[in-house]
Write a structure and sequence with these properties.
The complex is a heterotrimer.
Chain A lengths: L1 H5 L12 H9 L13 H30 L15 E3 L5 E3 L4 H8 L1 H33 L3 H16 L2 H12 L4 H9 L12 H25 L3 H9 L4 H12 L1 H16 L3 H6 L7 H11 L3 H33 L2
Antiparallel strand pairs in A: 1-2
Helix pairs in contact in A: 3-15, 4-15, 5-9, 5-12, 6-9, 7-9, 9-12, 10-11, 12-15, 14-15
Chain B lengths: L1 H10 L14 E10 L2 E11 L4 E5 L6 H9 L6 E6 L2 E2 L10 E4 L11 H10 L6 H14 L15 H13 L5 E5 L7 H18 L2 E6 L2 H7 L2 E6 L2 E6 L1 H6 L4 H6 L4 E11 L2 E6 L4 E5 L10 E6 L4 E4 L10 E11 L3 E8 L4 E7 L15 E6 L5 E3 L2
Parallel strand pairs in B: 3-8, 3-9, 6-7, 7-8
Antiparallel strand pairs in B: 1-2, 1-4, 4-5, 9-10, 11-12, 11-14, 12-13, 14-20, 15-19, 16-17, 16-19, 17-18
Chain C lengths: L1 H28 L19 H7 L2 H34 L6 H13 L2 H23 L7 H25 L4 H8 L4 H30 L2 H6 L7 H9 L5 H41 L1
Helix pairs in contact in C: 1-11, 2-11, 3-6, 3-8, 3-10, 4-6, 6-8, 7-8
Classes of the chains: A mainly alpha, B alpha+beta, C mainly alpha.
Chain lengths: 335, 386, 284
C-alpha cells in the first residue's frame, strides 16, 4: 500500500521510479545522508568497490591461501615446498589431500607448546606493565593545562615517528653487559658485577613497553580527556576522598580506554618478532620467531601456515573485541 | 504582532487558502515517514500557496524537521507524494530540486570566503557566465547588507552576519521555495527581533515562498502568514497566527501557544447564540456569547487567556458566571506586564497577566495574599472539545 | 587530590625519561670514537667519523633510497584507498558486506606482522604460479610486491584517521552543498576533501613512516636485490651494536624532531590567528 502510493499520479517525465530499490534500502532503515544516492547508485558502487576489491584480493584471499597450505603435505625438495592440496587427476576427478599433521605437531611438539604459553605470558605481562606506566601518564596529561597538554602529547608521539627498529636497537646499547646501565651502576658502586639484562624476558618486557607505550597512552588519554571534571567535584562534595573518587568514578569511566589500549598492545605483542629477536631469550622463543624459522630455515611452508592460522584463531576473539570497541568510540564521536 | 498581520493582509490579499479553487504551490499528500518502527510523520497533508511564509510549529520530535528534509530531498517519504508547482518530486535528488534550504547551523563552507560561499550554488548551474554570477552575488550582498564583508571567511563573521550569508547563499539561486530550519534560534533576543522583520522584508521584495520550521511560537507568530502546529508527527491545526491564538481547536494548541487557563466542565446549555458550561474547576458557570456545536452534557474545556482576565478587589455585579474569588499567591513583575498567580476557591491556580499601565504606588497595587475577584468578558473563553 | 596528582605527575616525568633516555644515549654514542659504542673513549671523542662512514656506506644509502621510494608510493596508494574506505564507512548507509569491509579495514591495525607477511607472500607465490601457467610470465618479487604489501596494511591507519575525522565532521556542510546543486562527486572534492585535508596529510605521513620502518612484512615479500633500510639495519644489529647505525639513528631522530616541532609551531600559529579573527568578528 505504501509503495503503490509512490507510483501514483503519473506525471510526465518524472525520474526515479525505483520500487524494488526502495524496498531494499528501506528494509535497512537508511540513515540521513544517503537516501538520494539511489540515483547515483553506480557511482556509489564504484567508490565502495575500489578499496573493497583491494582488501579482498590482498588481505582476505591470502588468509584463505594460508589456510589451504596449512593442510598441505610438506615436500622438502619441491618448489614450492609442498604437495598441491587440490589436484586434478586424469580421470577428471578432483583429489583433495588434507593433512592435519601440521596442526597436531603444533600442539604436541614441546617446542611449540611452551612457545604458545610463553608468548601469551610475555604479551600479558608487557600489557599490564604498559598499563601501569601508561595510565598515570595519560591521566597526568589529561589533567594538565591545554598548553602543556599539547607539548606532552607531542613528546609522547615523537618517538613513535622515529624508527621502531632503531628504538629497540637503542636498548641493546643500554642493556648489554658493557652497556650504559651497567656502566652507570658500576660507576656508582651500586653493583660489583654487571647484570645480565640482554637476552632475557625482562629485556623483552622493556622492549614491548617501550615500543607500544604511545599505543597505550593515546586511547587512554582520549578517554580520560572527555571526563567531566564536575563528576569528581560532585563525588568530593558527597564525601568521597580523592582515592575513592578515583576508584569509583574515574576508573570505571576510563574502562573503554583501558580495554582499547590493552588490546592495542596485547594483540600485536603476542606476534611480536623484532623485539624478541634482538633482545629476547635464545632458549625460549616466541611464536613469531618459530613461524619465521619454520618458513625461512626449515622451508616448511605447511607448518608455518599452520602456525599462522593457529595464531589467528588465538587472537580472533581479542581482535573482534577491539573492533567492537573501536566502533563504539566512532559512534560516540559522531556528531 | 499587529504589524505582521497587516503585512500578510497586504501580501496575500485574497487569502488563497480560503478559496477552494486556488492552486496550491506546494502540496504534501498523505506523507508518512517511518524510521524502522518509529513513525516520525503520520499521514500529513498540507497545501501551501505561492508567496506565503508558512511556519511549521511544534516541540522537538514532532516531525517538523523531517517534513522539511523530505521537501529538500534528504529523506524520502515512506508513503505519499510531494508536489512543487505541479511537479512530483519523488526520486529527485536534492541537487536537482528547485528548492533551497537554510540550515540551522548555517553550514557555511569554512574554507571559502563569503563571496565564494554565495557563488557556489550559482556555479553548479549550467549556462551562467562568470560575470553573471558576479553580478548576482553583488546584488544579493546588497540586499542582505553584507557588501563590506564579501572577502571575509565565516569564522571572521559574527552570528548574525553568518546567518545573512546563509540566507544570501540560498536566495541567490532564486529557488521556487526556501526552507528555513530554525532560522533565528542561534541569535540573541534583540538581534532576533530585528532579523524577524528583515526576513519578512526580504521575502516580500523577492517574492519567494518560505517554509519555516521552528519551536519558538513568538517566531512563528511574527513571521508566518499561516502556521501549521504539529504534534507527534501530525498536523494538529493550520491557521493564521490570529486564528491559532484566538481560536485553538484543541487543548494542545491552546496550551502550546502562549499561556492559557483551562477549565474543564460540562456543557449545560447550548443554543445557537450562547452556551453555558458548568465547571467545578472554576467553581461556577462559564457563560459564552456564541454557540458551540457539541452534544449537551459533553465534557469540554474552556480556555481563557491570561491577558483577558481582569483582577479587581470588589466583587462583580454577577457572581454566578465568568468569575471566581481567590487569593493572590505569586506576582512576577516583568517590566511591561505583571503576571499574577491566583488560587481560586476551587483550589485551581489561575494565571492572569496585567499590563503595567500606570505607575501605581505600592498601596494601590494588588499585593500578595490579597483576596481578589477574577472576571472576564463572555467572548473571551474558547471552547475546545478535545 | 594533591597527592594523587603528584603520583601521576611523577610517573609522567619518569615515563618521559624512560622514553627519551634510550634515544639520547643512541645520539650521544654516535659521537663516541669506539667500536664498542657504549664504552666512552675520551681520547678520540667526540668524533664525526661514523657519520663519514655512514655516507660512504653504499649498502645503507641504496637501501635508504629504495625505502624512500617504496614509502612514498605506498603512502600515496594508501591515502587514496584509505580515504575512500574511510568515506564509505563514515558516510554511506548500510549495504551488503559493510561489516566485512569494516573488519577488513581495521584488522591490519592489530594483526601481527608475521601473519600478514606470510599470507601476502603466499599470495604472491600463488599469483606467480598462476601467471606462469596461464601466460608464461615470470615475475620476481621486489619493489612492486613490497609496495602492494605496504599499501595493504598501512591503508588501515589512513582509514581510521579519515573515518574518525569524518565522523566528527558536521555533515550539514555536505548537505548544504548538495542542496545548492552540487552532485555528490563534486561535493566530495570541493567540500569534503579540503576540509579533511589535514587528516589526509597526517594519514600520508603515518603511512609513509610505517612503510619506511617496516621490517617483518618486507622480509617476507621482498625479492633478491631489493633490500630496504630496515632489512639492512636488522641484519647488522642482530650481531650487536654498530656505531654507524647510531649515526643513522641520530640523523633520523633529528629529521623527525624538526618535522614535529615545525608542524606544531605552524599549527599553533594558525590556531592563534584564527582565534584572534573570531574575537574580532564577535566584537565588531
Amino acid at each position: 500500500m505504501s509503495l503503490s502510493a509512490a507510483r501514483t499520479v503519473g506525471t510526465r517525465g518524472t525520474p526515479g521510479r525505483l520500487g524494488p530499490v526502495w524496498t531494499f534500502l528501506f528494509r535497512y532503515g537508511p540513515p540521513r545522508w544517503t537516501e538520494y544516492l539511489i540515483k547515483n547508485w553506480a557511482g556509489q558502487r564504484l567508490v565502495i568497490s575500489l578499496p573493497y576489491l583491494w582488501l579482498l584480493i590482498f588481505f582476505l584471499v591470502p588468509f584463505l591461501i594460508v589456510l589451504k597450505i596449512s593442510f598441505a603435505e610438506f615436500s622438502p625438495l619441491g618448489r614450492p615446498p609442498y604437495e598441491p592440496v587440490f589436484r586434478w587427476l586424469d580421470e577428471g576427478a578432483l583429489q583433495i589431500k588434507l593433512l592435519v599433521s601440521s596442526y597436531t605437531y603444533l600442539f604436541n611438539e614441546p617446542l611449540y607448546v611452551s612457545s604458545w604459553g610463553y608468548s601469551i605470558m610475555v604479551a600479558a605481562v608487557s600489557t599490564v606493565l604498559c598499563l601501569l606506566l601508561g595510565y598515570p601518564m595519560a591521566y597526568a596529561i589529561a589533567r594538565s593545562t591545554p598548553t602543556y597538554r599539547n607539548v606532552f602529547l607531542m613528546l609522547v608521539i615523537l618517538p613513535f615517528w622515529t624508527s621502531f627498529l632503531l628504538r629497540v636497537y637503542a636498548w641493546i646499547g643500554l642493556l648489554k653487559t658493557d652497556g650504559v646501565i651497567n656502566n652507570v651502576l658500576m660507576w656508582l658502586g651500586i653493583i660489583d658485577a654487571p647484570l645480565t639484562m640482554m637476552y632475557t624476558s625482562f629485556a623483552v618486557y622493556i622492549g614491548i613497553v617501550y615500543s607500544y607505550l604511545p599505543f597505550m597512552i593515546l586511547p587512554l588519554y582520549s578517554n580520560l580527556e572527555k571526563h567531566d571534571n564536575t563528576l569528581l567535584e560532585a563525588a568530593s562534595d558527597l564525601g568521597a576522598g580523592p582515592i575513592k573518587a578515583f576508584l569509583r568514578v574515574t576508573l570505571p569511566l576510563s574502562f573503554p580506554g583501558i580495554v582499547a589500549g590493552s588490546l592495542l598492545v596485547f594483540i600485536p605483542a603476542v606476534g611480536e618478532y623484532v623485539i624478541p629477536s634482538l633482545l629476547g631469550r635464545t632458549d625460549q622463543l616466541m611464536i613469531a620467531k618459530l613461524l619465521s624459522d619454520e618458513f625461512f630455515l626449515n622451508r616448511d611452508w605447511p607448518k608455518a601456515s599452520a602456525v599462522a592460522i593457529a595464531m589467528l584463531l588465538l587472537l580472533v576473539v581479542p581482535i573482534m573485541l577491539f573492533q567492537h570497541f573501536q566502533n563504539k568510540e566512532l559512534q560516540a564521536n559522531k556528531k | 504582532m499587529q504589524s505582521a498581520e497587516r503585512r500578510t493582509d497586504k501580501k496575500i490579499k485574497n487569502e488563497p487558502w480560503r478559496d477552494p479553487n486556488a492552486e496550491a504551490y506546494v502540496r504534501f499528500e498523505n506523507i508518512t515517514k517511518r524510521f524502522g518502527d518509529f513513525v516520525a510523520v503520520n499521514n500529513v497533508s498540507l497545501k501551501i500557496y505561492k508567496g506565503e511564509i508558512f511556519c511549521l510549529l511544534g516541540g522537538s520530535g514532532c516531525g517538523k524537521s523531517t517534513l522539511l528534509r523530505m521537501m529538500a530531498g534528504f529523506e524520502q517519504p515512506s508513503a505519499g507524494t510531494i508536489y512543487l508547482d505541479g511537479q512530483d518530486l519523488a526520486g529527485i535528488p536534492p541537487y536537482e530540486r528547485p528548492v533551497n534550504m537554510m540550515f540551522q547551523s548555517y553550514a557555511l563552507f569554512p574554507h571559502m570566503t563569503v563571496e565564494k560561499n554565495i557563488a557556489f550554488g550559482l556555479e553548479q548551474e549550467k549556462g551562467l557566465s562568470r560575470s553573471e554570477i558576479a553580478t548576482r552575488v553583488t546584488d544579493i550582498l546588497e540586499i542582505v547588507k553584507l557588501t563590506p564583508f564579501a572577502v571575509r571567511k565565516p569564522h571572521q563573521l559574527s552570528g548574525g552576519q553568518r546567518q545573512r550569508v546563509a540566507l544570501a547563499r540560498s536566495l541567490v539561486k532564486r529557488p521556487k521555495l526556501l526552507l528555513l530550519d530554525e532560522p533565528l534560534g542561534a541569535l540573541d533576543k534583540k538581534l532576533r527581533e530585528a532579523t524577524q522583520f528583515e526576513l519578512i522584508n526580504i521575502q516580500e521584495s523577492l517574492g519567494v515562498t518560505f517554509i519555516v520550521v521552528t519551536h519558538d511560537q513568538e517566531e512563528a507568530m511574527t513571521l508566518a502568514s499561516r502556521i501549521g502546529v504539529m504534534n507527534r508527527g501530525e498536523i494538529v491545526q493550520i491557521g493564521t497566527p490570529t486564528e491559532i491564538y484566538e481560536f485553538p481547536m484543541t487543548k494542545f494548541v491552546a496550551d502550546f501557544i502562549g499561556s492559557v487557563n483551562m477549565f474543564e466542565g460540562q456543557l449545560v446549555e447550548d443554543l445557537p447564540d450562547r452556551a453555558r458550561i458548568k465547571s467545578d474547576e472554576l467553581g461556577g458557570l462559564i457563560y459564552i456569547d456564541h454557540g458551540i456545536s457539541s452534544a449537551p452534557g459533553a465534557t469540554v474545556w474552556a480556555a481563557v487567556r491570561p491577558e483577558k482576565i481582569n483582577i479587581q478587589r470588589q466583587p462583580p455585579a454577577n457572581t454566578s458566571e465568568n468569575c471566581a474569588k481567590g487569593v493572590v499567591k505569586e506576582i512576577a513583575y516583568m517590566g511591561d506586564v505583571s503576571i499574577y498567580l491566583v488560587k481560586i476557591d476551587s483550589g485551581k491556580t489561575v494565571r492572569v497577566t496585567l499590563p503595567n499601565v500606570e505607575r501605581l504606588s505600592d498601596d494601590e497595587r494588588i499585593q500578595w495574599d490579597e483576596t481578589v475577584w477574577l472576571t472576564w468578558h463572555a467572548s473571551s473563553p474558547v471552547v475546545v472539545t478535545q | 587530590m594533591k597527592t594523587q596528582g603528584l603520583f601521576s605527575k611523577v610517573m609522567l616525568g619518569f615515563g618521559f625519561v624512560f622514553l627519551y633516555v634510550p634515544i639520547l644515549s643512541m645520539v650521544i654514542f654516535s659521537f663516541n670514537d669506539s667500536r664498542l659504542v657504549t664504552v666512552w673513549n675520551s681520547v678520540g671523542s667526540p668524533t664525526l667519523k661514523w657519520y663519514g662512514r655512514l655516507f660512504s656506506d653504499d649498502q645503507i644509502l641504496s637501501a635508504a633510497w629504495l625505502s624512500i621510494q617504496v614509502a612514498a608510493m605506498s603512502a600515496t596508494g594508501a591515502v587514496v584507498l584509505g580515504t575512500l574506505s574511510g568515506l564509505v564507512l563514515a558516510r554511506f548507509g548500510p549495504f551488503k558486506g559493510r561489516a566485512l569491509l569494516q573488519g577488513l579495514t581495521t584488522a591490519p591495525l592489530v594483526m601481527p606482522e608475521v601473519i600478514t607477511g606470510l599470507s601476502m607472500l603466499l599470495l604472491f607465490v600463488s599469483l606467480e604460479q598462476l601467471l606462469k601457467a596461464m601466460f608464461g610470465w615470470q615475475f620476481d618479487r621486489g619493489v612492486a610486491t613490497i609496495t602492494i604489501a605496504h599499501i595493504t596494511f598501512t591503508m588501515a591507519y589512513v582509514t581510521v584517521v579519515v573515518q574518525s575525522r569524518l565522523a566528527s565532521f558536521d555533515d550539514s556542510l555536505e548537505e548544504a552543498a548538495l542542496d545548492l546543486g552540487a552532485r555528490p562527486a563534486k561535493v566530495f572534492f570541493r567540500i569534503t576533501v579540503p576540509l579533511i585535508l589535514p587528516a589526509i596529510l597526517s594519514g600520508w605521513l603515518l603511512a609513509f613512516t610505517l612503510s619506511w620502518d617496516d621490517l617483518v612484512v618486507t622480509q617476507f615479500v621482498s625479492g633478491p636485490g631489493s633490500n630496504t633500510l630496515p632489512m639492512v639495519i636488522f641484519s647488522r644489529v642482530r650481531l650487536g651494536v654498530s656505531p654507524v647505525v647510531n649515526a643513522l639513528a641520530t640523523i633520523m631522530v633529528l629529521i623527525v624532531a624538526l618535522g614535529v616541532i615545525l608542524s606544531a609551531v605552524l599549527m599553533r600559529r594558525q590556531e592563534l590567528r584564527r582565534k584572534r579573527e573570531e574575537q574580532m568578528a564577535a566584537s565588531g
